[in-house]
Amino acid sequence: MRTTVMNADGCSVIRLQGRFDFSSHRDFREATEKAITAEDCRTISVDLGDVDYLDSSALGMLLMLRDKAQAASKSVSLDRCRGAVRQVLDIANFGKLFAIS
């Protein structure tokens, strides 16, 4: 999986590409730390538009991001969710925990 972090206008966007699974945990953790520690960031958007697969460990990583962001008074949204990724998020009831688009 490839990750990029962009900061602009009070929002950090974490863009993920490829398979989001346990092998991605180090890259995802580094990206989330950049987003959470960005001084001007109030919201974090996780762009899942280019993710073609995610598993239960990816769901756990998203929950950890949510907890860390809340501790830092930041909100998290999951954006550009589609196909199988959206279906997994819906089955896991993530719509109750995140803003999903």
Walk me through the topology.
Blueprint: E1 2-8, E2 11-20, H1 25-37, E3 43-54, H2 56-71, E4 75-79, H3 83-91, E5 99-100
Parallel strand pairs: 2-3, 3-4, 4-5
Antiparallel strand pairs: 1-2
Helix pairs in contact: 1-2
Protein architecture, described:
It is a single chain. This protein is α/β, with parallel strands linked by helices and 101 residues long. The chain has a single domain (2-100), classed as Transcription Regulator spoIIAA, CATH 3.30.750.24. The chain is 38% helix and 36% strand. The chain contains three helices and five strands. Strands 1-2-3-4-5 form a five-stranded mixed sheet. Strand 2 (11-20), helix 1 and strand 3 (43-54) form a beta-alpha-beta unit. Helix 1 (25-37) runs parallel beside helix 2. The chain is globular and about 35 Å long. It starts with a strand and ends with a strand.
Key attributes of the depicted protein:
five-stranded mixed β-sheet; 101 residues; single chain; 3 helices; alpha/beta
Short description:
The protein has helices spanning 25-37, 56-71, 83-91, and strands at 2-8, 11-20, 43-54, 75-79, 99-100. The chain has 101 residues and is α/β, with parallel strands linked by helices.
- Look at the structure and give the mean pLDDT: 95
* SS elements, strand count: 5
Q: Which structural category fits the helices and strands?
A: alpha/beta
The CATH architecture term is 2-Layer Sandwich
Helix content: 25-40%
Distance between the first and last residues' Cα = 21 Å
Q: Secondary-structure element sequence? A: EEHEHEHE
Number of helices: 3
CATH class: Alpha Beta
Label the overall shape: globular
Spatially, the strands of the biggest sheet line up as: 1-2-3-4-5
Query: Tell me about the biggest sheet?
Result: 5 strands, mixed
